[in-house]
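We read letters as residues; the fold follows as tokens. Both lines appear below.
***
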Amino acid sequence: MSEQSTGESGGNEVSQEFVQMEKELNKETSVLSLMRGQMKSMVGMVSMFVITILISLFIRPWYDVAELHAFGEAGSTQARYIFLELVMIFIFTAFVIMLARYKKEWLIKYGILGVLTIALMYTTVPLAHMFVIDFDVEDFEYTDSFESGETYLTDIGMGAFITHDLIGNSTNWQDSVSYWNQDSMVSGTPEWTYNQSRLPAGDSQIFRVVKSPNHITMTNGAWISSIDINTGQMIENYACHSEEGGQVTLGTDYGVCDMAVIVEGGVYTFSTGGDVIFYRTFEQSPGVMAYQSKWGLPPNIDIRNEFVDATMIEDERMLLVTKSSALVMHLEENSGTLDIDLQKIIFQYNSTSSITGVDFGHSPWSENNISSNIGDEGLLIIGEQDGTISGWEWQDNLPNDEGAFTIQEKMNLENFVDSVQNVQITDLDESGFTDLLITSDDTSYWLHTKLLKNKISFPVSDSFSMGIFSSDADDNIQFYSVDTDQEISIESGEITEEMFALEGLQLYQTQFLIGIIVALVLMVLLYVHSEWYVVNTVGVLVGAGVIVMLGVAFVPTLIIIFMILAAIYDAWAVYKSKHMLELADTMIGLQLPILLVAPQDKGYSFRDEKAPISDIDGSELPEPRVKQNKPKKNKEAMFMGLGDVIFPGMLVLSAVQWLDTDYGLSVAISTLIGGLIGYTALMTYVARGKAQAGLPLLNGGAILGYFIGGLIFAGTAIFELGITW
């Protein structure tokens, strides 16, 4: 019984030793243990992953100011270019594998070295410039100001405006109208002032002005007058009232004159009730109006309470804008029926918010300069309270005005400002090609030419009405802010070159040469001494260049589509066809930096790397290490293809490039964190010694981080696609 007991005890002891040994072996081969054993390589790879993306972010401004978008700004939202990029990847991969199978490794090596040299310069040249270029600009400041007691009425072209003041008393009311232009800004006095009797209208009567190319038409309810813009002299004057037996009646027998416009051979009057009346005039009988025809305005047009602007854009076409609607009427001389017809409308836009600014002038997208515009083309731009900015190109002399107004698709200013205070067509640099001045609640943005690049901004008040650019005697450009808070206040300041945001390709001779030389030196080192640190240096720099080139080229939505398709392809190429492993073996054998190398041990040499990735069997766990008297000649290292860094990096950079500045950086950081989490998950497989498709986990983590960060910082707007084919 004791023997049995002893025997049982011995058996138990053996069993316990076995269990303990098994635990130790399991511990040795656990994922965590394996990852701890390769921690140096993992940390090194993470460091290169982050550094590559940080370099791309650092050089991004150089690409941004130069507008170096691979497919242009329009192509950034077009999905067909993503599929083109994928096709190019397929072709490149197939071509390299074909050459390898036909033993043309020399052709692969020198061909790729040539391509890498160019790609390397796309990082080294911008990097050299980033240390000397100052992307910060000086703030514009006002230095002078003056005030005028009049009320702002409307702009006249790009560099002038008119004001109004009611002077006199109840027995001698007068409408005083002054014209201010660029010269007036310097002198502080109007170019001319015209006074007209208001009586028999009272001080409560509305005063309206309609602009025409060479004159303005003023209406105060009792009188209709046209004034020459250049001279301030009255051209025509008509009474819109009658007196009988000492009793004065405003208006004519056919309607009142709340607004009017004088054209060649006649006068059109508009009433707050919506009536449009045409009166024939006669050169031989000045001051006489003869009724001819009558029309009606659309019922939503309120020229008393919602009036914004009225402009003759052509002899017979009038732009009328209220807070709720903008329309262009074709003013005819005969109604054609006995009943009252609606005025012929050739264009109408109904606002869902409230129209706060409008302008009509020479289009920035016109092929002709301002001096070549004979009045047969133009741009109508409308700004609204909710931040909507829309533009329509106008073309004259089209049959029945069909298609006279077409939306300007290139004027993509969605979400540019939260609320529009004013919109203007300007020409700051006097180039003859116009620009846009878009004003929000506190800032006015000058958008340069057809690219609409914001080159300079001006602080403005909430009473800002107009901005004027003028050159002084020394050709210094001044900006005048016209504010209308009870009375006109004009502030001014000088615009200097230091205030303009950089634009265009920035190439400095010294920095350009430094970038070229650095790239060539690195490629020579790669050729003669392709050690892991040389490979990594070139790989990181090449990866950063590719990230920024593709990141600035596509909006995040397209990048995500690209990443998903690339991840699917990567998984198929690694697990199914296995040609990606063949490609990796070829690159390692040729010691080309299409990958990153993270050595585990100090004595590692990439030049001695011979073990093909395709020979690694994931089913076999590494054996426990045994101390050796002599160190191995070549020790362990971890490899990662550049594509595994480039794809997550593209999404990080695209978020910074294309998302709103209020949350773009935050979303980019969350995307990077997601990519690092995906990398950690990838390492749990790599630690087992198994070749893995990196993109499914890396891209998946980055995309998940993008959407999580987007929901936190941007809300559901992050899911808006905004792409086309």
Remarks:
- The domain at 159-350 is CATH 2.40.10.480 (Thrombin, subunit H).
